[in-house]
């Protein structure tokens, strides 16, 4: 029996985690959930799972849920804001927290969960990007596991099992290439938000869908892999593999390559993370090799998809450079979703911020400095692009 909380229970990963719970024969127990403002979805989850604790980031939504619970589920406790998220991440009763909020808002609750000695099933890659060193050190110190939910990192984790880090030659991180694979800069000039949101293989939240279209998602994943597996950036290679059947691979020093394959279904890595080291019953469609057709591989185009290059650069600089990269990206993606900028401007904004905040690269790596710098980067972008003060 495992007791868990889900941060971001109403999102794409959160919803698929609920499905993993439904398939767990009562072995996984949902104790706490959070969401930003999706009141109706939270009511549905409460109706089905009756968790003991709920937190809504948005004040107003939390009042609505509190009233709802007072009337229909008086035993459920309701919290709000970032403190509410921290509460749900650190509940006495839980063993594991699924971090499936989007963005670096997940940082504080994740750190708090680790300090409270909870294992982390980590989907929220932005947290590891901005604070990988802090998170991994804290996890080690508190003897908690960081179990990757991201499909590529789950694949690497599985491909590494039974081997030693010193025997790795490199990590081969696969990428679908996103909806704009093969396109030129010229062709990307006028793409719409709708086109950018249309991922060929995965059905995901809006932010990660845009990140997949710019290849920033792969960039964030390179940094995530660096911290999770303690691997040099020069030994992490991105390979575009449009069929998304090989979820990533590890090349060993003798040139042997071990890979993990599976249907593109996030319930698989979620279920693996929640039951590790055990494997549970079949939740995804098995791969039908006879129907697959060819598996193909390409080099990523770093000239057109500059975000992937920027992520490598920020990762190699280290310190707070990934905080600038991530903050700029989160804010630029939000602007694109509001149709305030064009697709290619995401990379331009990130490049500008990396240069404007250069003097902050090596500020001391503390939680407060990360949060402070992230805020500064966002304010800079909002003033210049959203409010149009140029
Ligand atoms: P989503 O947008 O579908 O869901 C996000 C969840 O976070 C929702 O429950 C939402 O209510 C909550 N949330 C949003 N903003 C918030 C805020 N400011 N404060 C508190 N809660 C907030 O996102 P998703 O696609 O499920 O992705 C979640 C995380 O998992 C991201 O970090 C993403 O990169 C990662 N991830 C997702 C997938 C996928 O297939 N969707 C795969 C790998 C990794
Ligand atoms: Mg991924």
TrEMBL record:
Its cofactor is Mg(2+); Mn(2+). It is an enzyme of class 1 (oxidoreductase). Catalyzes the NADPH-dependent rearrangement and reduction of 1-deoxy-D-xylulose-5-phosphate (DXP) to 2-C-methyl-D-erythritol 4-phosphate (MEP). Keywords: Isoprene biosynthesis, Magnesium, Manganese, Metal-binding, NADP, Oxidoreductase. NADPH binds at residues 10-13, 124, 126, 205. Belongs to the DXR family. It comes from the Bacteria. It holds the Pfam family DXP_reductoisom. InterPro entries: DXP_reductoisomerase (IPR003821), DXP_reductoisomerase_C (IPR013644), DXP_reductoisomerase_N (IPR013512), DXPR_C (IPR026877), DXPR_C_sf (IPR036169), NAD(P)-bd_dom_sf (IPR036291). Residues 261-380 form the DXP reductoisomerase C-terminal domain. GO terms for molecular function: 1-deoxy-D-xylulose-5-phosphate reductoisomerase activity. Mn(2+) binds at residues 150, 152, 221. 1-deoxy-D-xylulose 5-phosphate binds at residues 125, 151-152, 176, 199, 212, 217-218, 221. It catalyses: 2-C-methyl-D-erythritol 4-phosphate + NADP(+) = 1-deoxy-D-xylulose 5-phosphate + NADPH + H(+). Its EC number is 1.1.1.267. Pathway: Isoprenoid biosynthesis; isopentenyl diphosphate biosynthesis via DXP pathway; isopentenyl diphosphate from 1-deoxy-D-xylulose 5-phosphate: step 1/6. Signal peptide: none annotated. Residues 4-132 form the 1-deoxy-D-xylulose 5-phosphate reductoisomerase N-terminal domain. The keyword rRNA processing does not apply. This is 1-deoxy-D-xylulose 5-phosphate reductoisomerase. SUPFAM superfamilies: 1-deoxy-D-xylulose-5-phosphate reductoisomerase, C-terminal domain, Glyceraldehyde-3-phosphate dehydrogenase-like, C-terminal domain, NAD(P)-binding Rossmann-fold domains. Residues 146-229 form the 1-deoxy-D-xylulose 5-phosphate reductoisomerase C-terminal domain.
């Amino acid at each position: 029996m495992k007791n868990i909380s889900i941060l971001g229970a109403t999102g794409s990963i959160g919803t698929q985690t609920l499905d993993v719970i439904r398939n767990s024969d009562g072995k996984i127990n949902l104790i706490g959930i959070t969401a930003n403002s999706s009141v109706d979805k939270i009511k549905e989850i409460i109706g089905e799972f009756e968790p003991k604790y709920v937190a809504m980031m948005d004040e107003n939504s939390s009042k609505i849920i509190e009233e709802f619970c007072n009337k229909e589920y008086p035993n459920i406790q309701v919290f709000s804001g970032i403190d509410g998220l921290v509460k749900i991440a650190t509940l006495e009763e839980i063993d594991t927290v699924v971090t499936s909020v989007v963005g670096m808002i997940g940082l504080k609750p994740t750190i708090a969960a680790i300090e409270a000695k909870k294992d982390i099933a980590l989907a929220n890659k932005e947290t590891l990007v901005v604070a990988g060193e802090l998170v991994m050190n804290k996890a080690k110190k508190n003897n908690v596991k960081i179990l990757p939910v991201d499909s590529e990192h789950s694949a690497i984790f599985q491909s590494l099992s039974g081997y030693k880090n010193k025997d790795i030659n490199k990590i081969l991180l696969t990428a679908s290439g996103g909806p704009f694979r093969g396109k030129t800069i010229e062709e990307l000039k006028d793409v719409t938000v709708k086109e950018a949101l249309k991922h060929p293989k995965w059905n995901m939240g809006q932010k990660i869908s845009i990140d997949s279209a710019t290849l920033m998602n792969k960039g964030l994943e390179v940094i995530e892999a660096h911290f999770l597996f303690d691997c040099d950036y020069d030994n992490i290679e991105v390979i575009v593999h449009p069929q998304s059947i090989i979820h990533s691979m590890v090349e060993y020093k003798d040139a042997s390559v071990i890979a993990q394959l599976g249907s593109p279904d996030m319930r698989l890595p979620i279920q693996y993370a929640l039951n590790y080291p055990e494997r549970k019953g079949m939740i995804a469609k098995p791969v039908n090799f006879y129907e697959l057709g060819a598996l193909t591989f390409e080099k990523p185009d770093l000239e057109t998809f500059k975000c992937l290059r920027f992520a490598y650069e920020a990762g190699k600089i280290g310190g707070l450079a990934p905080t600038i990269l991530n903050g700029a990206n989160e804010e630029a993606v939000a602007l694109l979703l509001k149709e305030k900028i064009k697709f290619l401007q995401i990379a331009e904004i990130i490049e500008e911020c990396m240069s404007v905040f250069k003097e902050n690269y090596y500020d001391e790596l503390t939680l407060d400095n990360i949060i402070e710098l992230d805020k500064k980067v966002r304010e800079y972008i909002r003033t210049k692009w959203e409010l149009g003060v140029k």
